[in-house]
Amino acid sequence: MNKWVLLSGLCAAGALTAGMTMGGGSARDLAGVAFADKIAPIVYEKCTPCHRPGQVAPFSLMNYEDAKRRSGTIARVVEKRFMPPWKAVSGYGSFKHENRLTDEQVALFKAWHEAGAPRGEPSTEPKPPVFSTEWALGQPDLIVSADKEFKLGAEGEDVYRNFVIKTDYKESKWIRAIDVAPGNRKIVHHVIAFLDSGGRALNLEKSTKDGQPGYSTSGGGVGFLPDGALGGWAPGLQPFETPKGTAFELKPGTTIVLQVHYHKSGKEETDKTKLAIYLAKEKVEKEMRLAWIANPFFRLKAGNASQSVNMAYTVQADVTAYGAMPHMHLLGKSMKAWVELPDGKEVPLVAIDQWDFNWQLTYEFAKPLKIPAGSTVRATAVYDNSANNPNNPNKPPKDVRWGEQTTDEMALLIVSFTRDTN
What we know:
The protein folds into three domains: 16-124, no CATH class; 142-287, Jelly Rolls (Sandwich), CATH 2.60.120; 289-419, Jelly Rolls, CATH 2.60.120.230. Strands 1-16-25-19-22 form a five-stranded antiparallel sheet, with no helix packed on it. A five-stranded mixed sheet has the order 4-14-7-11-15, with no helix packed on it. The longest helix has 13 residues, at 35-47. It has helices at 35-47, 64-69, 71-79, 103-114, 200-206; strands at residues 5-8, 21-22, 25-26, 142-145, 150-152, 159-165, 173-181, 188-196, 215-217, 228-233, 246-250, 255-262, 269-271, 274-279, 286-287, 289-294, 299-300, 307-314, 319-327, 332-340, 346-352, 363-371, 376-383, 400-401, 412-419. Helix 3 (71-79) packs antiparallel against helix 4 (103-114). The protein is mainly beta.
């Protein structure tokens, strides 16, 4: 078995000082900045999509009163680059929808807060954005879930529950995007939508006698080798919409197996996670796929503050890549991924130098990347398994290996791609 594993087809730096120059002026020169003219446009574009009712953010930023109440917090988190959530290193790869603030925008928030968060002239404020649904991409074509709530016990190991969602389509459906709404964010660790064309998940559910929807498995699998995947959700992940002319295929008779990884909270909980499906409206020319490039053969030694794990996979056919999503758990420190072309040239994919388990994002390339056969996709993940890591779940630290539990670790890079030929 090759040491480097490809699981294919499964399918926010230092503070600004008050005298920092900014376009010929300084932060002190910006003391007259007001919400209406300068702050509102940034908030409504960069903050409100998540900071609104029903979304992942802990408070809303829907209007001036909301922003004034949190002006100090906003100034601090944008200055430290915690917000908005964008972890990719600037200059390494190029991406669509880069959700980062300029230095001038950061200075505006700082100056606005220090001036007492003035509103300015309300009549000049832009109108807050209007969201028609809870879903980031608008109203889905289909929303599916288990028939009833799943009940999770108070204590013990993590649970992998697989909810079986039957379809009765007579012809292939092409899916341009999915989105996930965790029913109980306290306990939902991640979600993956697998595909089963053989009825195996239905049989496993029928054989389960615990009176709950779905069936449980261990280790992250679904009890059989799935026929693909539509993608999934993890904390901070925003839905990925496939480029025009591409989509994931849902073949006739295929069952969706919605696997939810639950992490127990210390008390009994319930959950009913929903999956939103968006269908392609135009002709599909290429089938979108997901490559899961991983190295499960590692041991992170207790006390080691900087241990590297390498991943590599040689591409067997000409493909086009559209985006990449790094994945690690709580010991993750950084990850860098690139393509080594057959002539030895290196093409950057994505680099994260301050990993945050709470913000796992898909980074969509600014332009699709052609990768010829014979290229090697490489990634290096770095971990901090020392007592100085505040996120270390083990106190004192202990050796950690690959595993599906939150307290285990992973070294994984997920790449979306299409084949250039059939």
